[in-house]
Amino acid sequence: MGVLITPSMIGQVVISGLLAGSLYAMVALGLGLIFGVMRVLNVAHGPLLMMGAYTTFWLFQWIGFNPYLSLLVSMPLLFLVGVALQRFLVRRVVDAPELSSLLLTFGVSIALVNLAQLAFTSDLRAVEYLTGSFVVGPFALSKPRLATCGFAIAITLGAFVFLRSTRLGKAIRAVSQSREVAQVCGIDVQRIHLITFGLGSALAAAGGSLVAVMVAIQPEMGQVYTFKSFLVIVLGGAGNYPGALLGGLLLGLVEQLASLFLTSQVNEAVAYVLLVVVLLIRPTGLLKGRV
Amino acid sequence: MKRWFPAALLVLAVGLALYPLQATGYGVRVMLQLFMWIALAQSWNLISGLTGYVSFGHVVFFGTGAYASSILIVTLGWAWPLACLGGGVVAAVLAFLIGWPCLRLKGPYFAIATLGLNEVMRVVASYYEGLTGGGNGLSLPTLHASVEIYYAMGLVAAAVTAVTYVIVTSRFGLRLMTIREDEVAAEAMGIDTLRYKLYAFLLSAAAPGIVGGLSARDQGYIEPLSVFPLIMTITMIVMALFGGKGTIWGPVLGAALLFAFQEVVWARFIYLHQLLFGAIIVGVVLLMPRGILGVLQQKYNLPRTI
Amino acid sequence: MTMTSWKRLAPVALAGVVFASVPLPAAAQTPIKIGASMSVTGTYAKPGTYQKQGYDVCIDELNAKGGLLGRKVELVIYDDQSTPATAVRLYEKLITEDKVDAVMGPYSSAVSEAVANVTEKYKKVMVAPLAATTSIFKKGRKYIFMVITPAENYLDGLIDMAAKRGLKTVAIINEDTLFPKASASGTAEAAKKKGMQVVLQEAYPKGNTDFSALLVKIKAANPDVIAAGTYFDDAVAITRQMKELNVNPKMFGLTVGGDLPEFYDLLKQNAEYVYGSTQWDESLPYPGQKEFLAAYKAKFKGQEPSYHTAAGYAGCLIYAEAVKKAGTLDADKVRDQLLKMEIRTAFGDYKIEPDGFQIAHKMVMLQWQDGKRIVVWPDDLSNGKPRYPTPEWSKR
Fold it and tell me: Residue A246: inside a domain, yes or no?
């Protein structure tokens, strides 16, 4: 019962993969920022994404708020949540062995998921806003995926510009390179930590708001994004921000191609094998990060 | 102080050994689950508590053991005690396959690598349906052996605790803890960190494998969703953390306390289960990183090896 | 307390915790206790709760009519959190500690399968209203009884309608878990029996959200019919992505998910023409429907019963019927009655094979038309005609 795979099928799947990958990249960038600056692996990244998705959902449900405009709400909101998490919890383990921050954020993540279950129930929600696709030749470009990709790329590029060109952005990069030296240069490291965690959370929330239009929203939806974000960071190189973009796109591609040539069943296993392979062959990632 | 402890242990052991004679089927099942959790928490402790390499996917060894031993029973007709040991061996082999590449990395990367592991194995189990029955699950021939499994689980729990005791008081254990405290220094001292980490990892996988097999035999039916759940890893971690990771009796204490808590309190607050666990983890990390036993150790000047 | 006495206390306390789990013997009771574990929380919380509602309505009805064998009936329910392992423990508890007189089945095939080992061990009759997979009943068990149509037959109606219209090719996809797999394999067999060709059959992992690769393959295979063994979120995702990728079968049918009102709530117009299958619908002309609906609506205001409720209700009634006929609660005598019985309830027909397998109950296929679910198959139970063929996405 095999189906002959034609170039146009591959093309279609490549498009889907790239569109999905841009989202992975943006969400992973958030994780990468937090890791680069604080050496904290934020296992709660997925739940933060989930909260962004719910924000979009409830705004849409209550006042019919445009899901894409809701980015303007979910991002600042989760920025504040991230700052609060950092200020009250994460700050205490930034200097502890990495094990502690791992466990802490792990605990936070399961607490957040349960809170969501209590507040929103596990019922599946969805935002029915944009459906259908543009047909370009033999390819169908899904409208929601295109929109997601567009916003994700815009936000990611915005983040890069921020990091490159603004004083705050440069301060963040300075701290991620060397905290001590940055401190000597007069940078308020504590403030940078707060802002970075907030930024990372905001990026996760953006991811959530964007996928809200496409997937079922439920409290545990973030888990898979946590893992994929880690994977992208490793692929692209930890602490290497453009690497996150590359890693995200690569992951999206690999997933779709594997589903096409093998079966959909092996989706997750493929991502995992990719992780192990990269960790073995080139642990610093494709674009040289810091291990 | 140390003199009455072995005596008390003996009394406890005898009590537990006699328990099935006057308990209901339900009571036996509950206790064997407690033994299972002790074995699991203790095993997690072996790798994560002693070496500092946090394993977020430890349930994968439980599930693998469950499938391996069930397949041995169903397709090769092995007797369940042998099949469960086989499950433990297969789990250890899996630990080797995963550990050999992944333990070369620094701690956090290892943790990430283990994060998605249970999902992957779930997919693998679903995929090879010829062997595992895939989504249909695997049914074992009907056998009513709860009491025998009770003893088997108890033995495994006791064995893992004993092994932990031996390790903690040995040079091997010392080396592991050195790796935990300062891996770079350990390497500089000439310790082959990869080898020791690997040993610890293999050891930490064997018991969950056996226990997975026993649990599968007791239930009589397994499917990918029910033997690779994330909540099991979470529970193992909370139990070991709460009791005191890196200690010998910490995981036992943590498992017993949290299990009792679950059965009694949580049954009434089902919706808060995970929230409480999350809160406990956060609380332990921030306030008592060495768990309850760690607090007691400090307060009452208890020996290191407890 | 001094340090030494504290330490002395610790192992004793531990032993205390251990021995505290020794249960007290249950007190004798006059009302008949029927026990079950339900998925009140966890993955199956929604359907599990619906099923429990069915049990509740049935018990109320029995008690209103004078009880069973002249005794009042009481329901003892525990939450198994949708996990087989927990359910197994709970049934042990119900049988050995609470000493219930009878048990009813839990929700889902996976949990029922695990629990069946316990009920067989203690030789307790268990009517399992929501166990749908054939394999549970083919293991030589004697005390388990099926009520609903098996998973394998869920899409029989779709295939039947397709074959009648001369359609030749079908693609089958399913979530890779127990129930959808069974329905997929059953559908494949049914298709082959009707001389149709299965051009693609593939499973996807639970939780999969991106079906592009799968749908791309399906589109290339260009089947007349797409049959999907789904639950709910995958059903929604697949339908949406079919529109995005412009996949246009002449008929598209789902197992679970397609029949829920939420399906239309989420997809709105895009849910039109989709075929769903259900074990039961309010509109079906079965005896006792009106009474059941009235009782349900009175007890659960503002809610609509789902088929899980109806199945639970029927299962409990069928058990009660068998007990009445046997005149006793004795497991073997009740079992004999259950094996012999042929009855039509508000849920549909009941008749079983010697191994407990259900052979009389029929699935019905419905189709979303103008925001309503219309029963379109089988003809003798339908209340509308199917809208065929499904028009292309671009033409809607």
Answer: yes
C96 interface with B at CB cutoff 8 Å = yes
Pick the CATH number of C27-149+285-350 from 3.40.50.300, 3.40.50.720, 3.40.50.2300, 3.40.250.10: 3.40.50.2300
Query: What's the angle, vertex CA A141, arms to CA A138 and CA A143, rounded to 5?
Result: 150
What is the domain-level CATH number for residue A271? 1.10.3470
Query: Do A115 and B111 make contact, defined as CB atoms within 8 angstroms?
Result: no
* Residue contact C18–B12, C-beta within 8 A: yes
- Contact list, A271 vs chain B (CB under 8 Å): 116
For B108: left if phi > 0, alpha if psi spans -120 to 50, otherwise beta; the answer is alpha
Chain C neighbors of B275, CB-CB under 8 A: none
Domain-embedded: residue A1: no
Domain residues for the domain of A240 are 7-281
Instruction: Give yes or no for C18 touching B (CB within 8 A).
Output: yes
ipTM of the complex: 0.82
Answer whether residue A123 is part of any domain: yes
Would you call C44 an interface residue with chain A, using a CB distance cutoff of 8 Å? no
Q: Nearest CA to A78 among A194, A266, A205, A177?
A: A205
Angle between helices B59-76 and B80-102 (to 10 degrees): 140
Q: Coil, helix or strand for B290?
A: coil
Interface residue C181 vs chain B (CB under 8 A)? yes
A93 near B CB under 8 A: yes
Burial code (b: 16+ CB inside 10 Å, e: under 16) for B25-61 equals bbbbbbbbbbbbbbbbbbbbbbbbbbbbbbbbbbbbb
Closest CA to C61 of C329, C352, C321: C321
| Shortest CA distance from B299: residue in chain C | C3
pTM of the model: 0.82
Q: Which chains touch B (3 or more CB pairs under 8 A)?
A: A, C
Put simply, whether B216 touches A (Cβ < 8 Å) is no
Question: Which residues on B lie below 8 Å from A234 (Cβ)?
Answer: 109, 112
Residues forming a β-bridge with C152: none
**Contacting residues of B for A280, CB less than 8 Å apart:** 101, 104
Q: What is the DSSP letter of C23?
A: P
Domain count, chain A: 1
Question: In the beta sheet, which residues pair with residue C36?
Answer: C77
pLDDT tens per residue across all 396 residues of chain C: 444 444 554 454 555 554 444 444 443 348 899 999 988 777 777 788 899 999 999 999 999 998 888 899 999 998 887 788 889 989 999 998 888 999 999 998 888 888 998 898 899 999 999 888 788 888 888 999 999 998 889 999 999 999 999 999 999 999 887 788 888 999 999 999 999 999 999 988 877 888 888 998 999 899 999 999 988 878 888 998 898 888 999 999 998 877 777 788 888 888 899 999 988 988 888 888 999 999 999 999 888 888 899 999 999 999 999 999 999 999 999 999 999 999 999 898 999 998 889 988 988 999 999 888 889 998 888 888 888 888 888 877
Q: Which residue in chain B has the smallest CA separation from A271?
A: B120
Pinpoint the residues of chain C covered by CATH 3.40.50.2300. 27-149+285-350, 153-278+364-395
What is the topology classification, in CATH, of domain C153-278+364-395?
A: Rossmann fold (3.40.50)
Q: Is residue A287 part of a domain?
A: no
Nearest CA-CA distance, residue A247 and chain C, Å: 19
